[in-house]
């Protein structure tokens, strides 16, 4: 009945979503984190592992920043600049902050990719195979999720040895149940859609239906969740290193940097911890905004 | 007409972001008349209806015009004055009855709330008045029903509550916007009967907006057509149906009472279903729901069997059982000499393509991630572009559709694509499960024509499942009527539509609103209606399922289960008393000894 009204209403709605500022900000942060993951260590102005002679130098005053920027851009000769200062070992904080995504973002992405693939396949199985198998998967998911994520993560990493790979695998194990549940729930609705029955009536086998029709249409919620979970995984990676259960020092990593600077904060050397802390907050916030924006777009 | 118009609309225009939805409309509604307003989707009917009550909402904008109700220009009134007129002088009934009721308040309280807003009544007085209104609308035990919350009442009752709310304060004009869309035919007819009667009793005029010309023919005094925001001059219903003034109405009426092309005569049936049953065990209670109960069906090549019944009668489950999309609990389906029920999975997969299905919701039936070509390719042995183009042409879709995704197609085009996919498998039988119900009346005409043409060309048999009796009449050669999982009567199209015998079939067909002003329901004496509501399918009566509601039920009906009796005229009937009567009026045929 109100066809005219509807078509008129939908046009500005898409335009409004395209202008969603938080989604744009989130996308920018996500892209920046990915770029830094790839090239961060190469574009860092100082070697992230070799101390400089400047020990515990504070960042330049805000008033000096424009002048220093000008000097860098024009190539004018200048003193070595430590934008975020240096730590007690003389390492340049700015270089380490932009080199850290190579560790933090890579671990978070790798873990989520692994759990997304494993979780959605298990979810598909849980939603289409025999009921007892689905029930078994759900109880196993309950088991994994019954323990606090952080504590379980700490124990597993400590037991398996602190390395890049074990952290990725641990996080993947912890996040898989999320994707199993999401995919299973969506599979349960999608498999009763008309096009699935139509393909069944054409004589297609159940495996074909599950992989070609059900799974592609059931993936959206898991993909949206993934963008939010990557943010949390970054937080978790940094958290594990902060308590000494993550990557080993002196690797440039946000959690390690905060831990290293924590003792100096009371002496007024705030910069060693505050800058990596800001980097984590901003990244997690960015991934969350990106995920929310995706969800709103999907729901329309 | 000599009388002053009750409502007079002059030059009313409403726009949406520059697009004109209602374009300089002039319309008069006379006191006490029922004026129909029809027209294609998007013609602006709903927008006009809301504008009459001063309810134009952003982004819609009132561009000008006057709405004069009994000499008072509504649109010139300040908002709080206008609000007092709404409900007391001009009422509104919208689609979706349950959505219009608040789930947090009892229905009696909601009717009372409207009354108290317009009449000098206290809480108690309003409640009593609400109960009286519900009693007047034919509800038994209205005092108890008034205390129900909206989720506790049936859809039909929710509609009556809406009528009570709209008419409670005695408005002079009632605007009803598609008030019965989505209702079963019997409830629709009941609702419109009550609406018409209540409006007549209250001397109110009704502006009835609907796309269903059957409703217009059966209830309206005059009818106006709306197209692209403009309203054509109203004419009397008889003149309108004798000579429809516009292309839209002419198209809709072009199939009126026209028999489908006769099928080729065939000796051996294509499909014979015997004692087909489906039981579902309900989770939790463990009760058994008998969705399909010993259904017998026979289909010949090139023939259409219409399967009709209200929601919950099990007709969709029958269709799904034939493809074994639902596993039958019992019975046999003999198709091309093989029993589909006992077939092994591998053989079933091979034979499945011989029976295809088209679903009610065309968008749901097409994978949203696939293009039309991919969808059709799935049904073919190999994806042959020439064959795909041929299929698209066969269902009147442009060749460019091949590259499009379902969401960029209209509902009618989606349904054509669904049909193309079904015929791509070159089936002998297509189960059409309400294929026209989700479509606009205009798209429905196109699909009916397409189905007829494909049947003539390809000789495919159809099982046409629908609650829309007009479409069934246009497509079916034979018709089976279902009630609570059983077939209660089966016969030729003419037998069922002209002279149904089973009491349920009679009640169902009496509610059939044909787009033909010669047999207007509003002028007919009310036929013996069925009492009460459909019994729950988990708790069925011991004897005839209809016994509790049937006006001619005898004692034996309540205790003896009825079986399907073949009559000499080719009908099958699940009603022993009626079958006996049929035999007695044709005494020469008793010798056949069909009745045992």
What does the secondary structure layout of this molecule look like, with pairings?
The complex is a heterodimer of chains A (300) and B (596).
Chain A: H1 3-18, H2 21-43, H3 65-74, H4 93-99, H5 101-128, H6 131-146, H7 149-160, H8 164-190, H9 194-201, H10 206-218, H11 220-242, H12 254-262, H13 271-299
Chain B: E1 7-16, E2 19-29, E3 34-38, H1 45-52, E4 60-69, E5 72-73, H2 79-88, E6 90-93, H3 107-118, H4 123-136, H5 142-145, H6 155-167, E7 173-177, H7 185-201, E8 205-209, H8 213-219, E9 222-227, E10 230-231, E11 235-236, H9 237-242, H10 247-253, E12 271-281, E13 288-299, E14 304-308, H11 315-322, E15 330-335, E16 338-339, H12 345-352, E17 355-358, H13 372-379, H14 385-394, H15 411-424, E18 429-433, H16 441-458, E19 461-465, H17 469-475, E20 478-483, E21 486-492, H18 493-498, H19 503-510, H20 555-559, E22 565-566, E23 572-573, H21 576-585
Parallel strand pairs in B: 3-8, 3-9, 6-7, 7-8, 14-19, 14-20, 17-18, 18-19
Antiparallel strand pairs in B: 1-2, 1-4, 4-5, 9-10, 9-11, 12-13, 12-15, 15-16, 20-21, 21-23, 22-23
Helix pairs in contact in B: 3-4, 3-6, 6-7, 13-15, 14-15, 15-16
Overall radius of gyration of chain B: 26 Å
Enumerate the spans of chain B where pLDDT stays under 50 for 5 or more consecutive residues.
Answer: 587-596
Would you give the CATH topology of the domain at 97-299 in chain A?
A: MetI-like fold
CATH class of the domain at 7-253 in chain B: Alpha Beta
Please give the number of β-strands of chain B. Answer: 23
Mean pLDDT of chain A: 85
Strands of chain A, count: 0
Task: Give the C-level CATH assignment of the domain at 97-299 in chain A.
Answer: Mainly Alpha
The chain-level structural class of chain A is mainly alpha
- Strand content of the residues of chain B, in percent? 15-25%
CATH architecture of the domain at 7-253 in chain B: 3-Layer(aba) Sandwich
- Mass-distribution shape of chain B: globular
Q: What profile does the largest beta sheet of chain B have?
A: 8 strands, mixed
**H/I helix tally of chain A:** 13
Can you give the helix content of chain A as a percent range?
over 70%
Biggest interface between chains: A-B, 24 and 41 residues
- Report the uncertain regions of chain A: 1-15
How much strand of chain A? under 5%
The count of helical stretches of chain B stands at 21
Main sheet: strands, sense, barrel of chain A: none
């Amino acid at each position: 009945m109100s066809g005219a009204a509807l078509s008129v209403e939908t046009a500005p709605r898409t335009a409004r979503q395209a202008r969603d500022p938080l989604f744009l900000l989130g996308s920018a942060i996500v892209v920046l984190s990915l770029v830094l993951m790839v090239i961060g260590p190469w574009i860092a102005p100082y070697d992230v592992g070799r101390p400089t002679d400047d020990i515990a130098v504070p960042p330049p005053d805000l008033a000096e920043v424009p002048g220093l920027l000008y000097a860098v851009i024009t190539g004018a000769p200048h003193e070595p600049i430590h934008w975020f200062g240096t730590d007690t070992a003389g390492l340049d904080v700015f270089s380490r902050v932009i080199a850290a995504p190579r560790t933090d973002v890579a671990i978070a992405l790798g873990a989520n990719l692994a759990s997304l693939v494993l979780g959605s396949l298990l979810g598909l199985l849980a939603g289409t195979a025999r009921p007892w198998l689905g029930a078994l998967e759900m109880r196993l998911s309950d088991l994994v999720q019954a323990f606090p994520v952080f504590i379980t993560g700490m124990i597993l990493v400590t037991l398996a040895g602190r390395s890049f790979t074990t952290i990725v695998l641990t996080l993947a194990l912890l996040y898989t149940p999320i994707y199993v549940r999401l995919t299973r729930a969506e599979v349960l609705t999608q498999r009763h859609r008309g096009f699935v029955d139509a393909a069944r009536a054409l004589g297609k086998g159940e495996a074909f239906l599950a992989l070609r029709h059900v799974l592609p249409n059931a993936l959206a919620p898991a993909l949206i969740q993934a963008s939010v979970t990557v943010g949390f995984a970054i937080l978790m990676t940094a958290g594990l290193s902060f308590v000494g259960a993550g990557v080993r020092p002196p690797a440039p990593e946000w959690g390690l940097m905060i831990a290293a600077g924590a003792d100096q904060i009371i002496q007024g050397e705030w910069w060693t911890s505050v800058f990596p802390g800001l980097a984590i907050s901003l990244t997690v916030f960015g991934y969350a905004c990106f995920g929310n924006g995706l969800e709103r777009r999907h729901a329309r | 007409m000599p009388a002053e118009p009750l409502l007079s609309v002059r030059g009313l225009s409403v726009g949406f972001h520059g697009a004109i939805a209602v374009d300089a409309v002039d319309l008069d509604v006379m006191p006490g008349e029922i004026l129909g307003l029809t027209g294609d989707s998007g013609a602006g009917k709903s927008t006009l209806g809301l504008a009459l009550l001063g309810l134009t909402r952003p982004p819609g904008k009132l561009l000008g015009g006057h709405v004069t109700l009994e000499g008072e220009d509504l649109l010139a009134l300040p908002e709080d004055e206008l609000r007092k007129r709404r409900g007391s002088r001009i009422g509104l009934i919208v689609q979706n009855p349950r959505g219009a009721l608040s789930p947090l308040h009892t229905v009696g309280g909601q009717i009372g709330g409207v009354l108290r807003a317009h009449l000098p009544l206290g809480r108690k007085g309003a409640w009593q008045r609400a109960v009286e209104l519900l009693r007047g609308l034919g509800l038994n035990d209205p005092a108890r029903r008034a205390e129900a919350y909206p989720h506790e009442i049936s859809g039909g009752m929710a509609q009556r509550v809406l009528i009570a709310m709209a008419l409670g304060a005695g408005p002079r004009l009632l605007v009803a916007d598609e008030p019965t869309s989505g209702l079963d035919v019997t409830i629709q007819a009941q609702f419109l009967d009550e609406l018409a009667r209540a409006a007549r009793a209250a001397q109110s005029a009704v502006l009835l907006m609907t796309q269903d010309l059957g409703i217009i023919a059966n209830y309206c005094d005059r009818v106006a057509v709306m197209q692209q925001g403009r309203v054509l001059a109203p004419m009397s219903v008889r003149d309108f149906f004798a000579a429809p003034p516009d292309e839209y109405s002419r198209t809709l009426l072009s199939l009126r009472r026209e028999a489908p092309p006769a099928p080729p005569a065939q000796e051996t049936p294509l499909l014979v279903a015997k004692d087909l049953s489906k039981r579902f065990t309900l989770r939790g209670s463990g009760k058994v729901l008998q969705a399909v109960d010993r259904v017998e069906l026979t289909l010949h090549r090139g023939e259409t069997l219409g399967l009709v019944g209200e929601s919950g009668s099990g007709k969709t489950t029958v269709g799904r059982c034939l493809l074994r999309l639902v596993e039958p609990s019992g019975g046999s389906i003999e198709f091309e000499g093989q029993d589909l029920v006992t077939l092994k999975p591998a053989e079933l997969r091979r034979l499945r393509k011989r029976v295809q299905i088209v679903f009610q919701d065309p968008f749901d039936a097409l994978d949203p991630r696939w293009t039309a070509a991919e969808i059709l390719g799935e049904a073919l042995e190999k994806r042959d572009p020439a064959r795909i183009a041929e299929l698209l042409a066969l269902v009147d879709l442009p060749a460019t559709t091949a590259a499009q995704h379902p969401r960029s197609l209209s509902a009618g085009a989606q349904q054509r694509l669904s049909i193309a996919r079904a015929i791509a498998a070159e089936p002998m039988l297509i189960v059409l499960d309400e294929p026209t119900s989700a479509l606009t009346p205009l798209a429905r005409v196109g699909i009916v024509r397409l189905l007829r043409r494909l049947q003539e060309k390809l000789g495919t048999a159809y099982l046409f499942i629908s609650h829309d009796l007009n479409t069934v009449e246009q497509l079916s050669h034979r018709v089976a009527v279902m009630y609570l999982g059983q077939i209660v009567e089966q016969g030729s199209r003419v037998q069922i539509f002209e002279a149904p015998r089973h009491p349920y079939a009679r009640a169902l067909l009496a509610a059939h609103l044909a787009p033909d002003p010669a047999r207007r329901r509003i002028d007919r004496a009310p036929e013996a209606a069925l009492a009460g509501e459909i019994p729950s399918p988990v708790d069925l009566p011991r004897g005839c399922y209809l016994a509790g509601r049937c006006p001619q039920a005898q004692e034996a009906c309540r205790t003896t289960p009825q079986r399907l009796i073949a009559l000499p005229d080719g009908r099958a009937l699940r009603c022993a008393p009626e079958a006996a009567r049929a035999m007695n009026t044709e005494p020469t045929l008793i010798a056949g000894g069909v009745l045992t």
